[in-house]
Amino acid sequence: MSSTGPATPRYVITMATLIFTIAFLVIGLPAGYALGWPWYATVPACLVAGAIVGAIAYKGWKSSQ
């Protein structure tokens, strides 16, 4: 993608999902461990939450175009 060109939908959905997934992992893993959840419950929950919020962010971006 050119830095001066418009963002493509693929770029937006990839970056939104990646950013929110990392954020959920950074916040969710310590919180999950503090609650006594095992990693195999916390990590998939964070991945799913990141994908869902990334899709919501993409829909918001697309509707503003």
UniProtKB/TrEMBL annotation:
Source superkingdom: Bacteria
TM ranges are 12-33, 39-58
Q: Which UniProt keywords apply?
A: Membrane, Transmembrane, Transmembrane helix
The protein's name: DUF4175 domain-containing protein
Native species = Aeromicrobium phragmitis
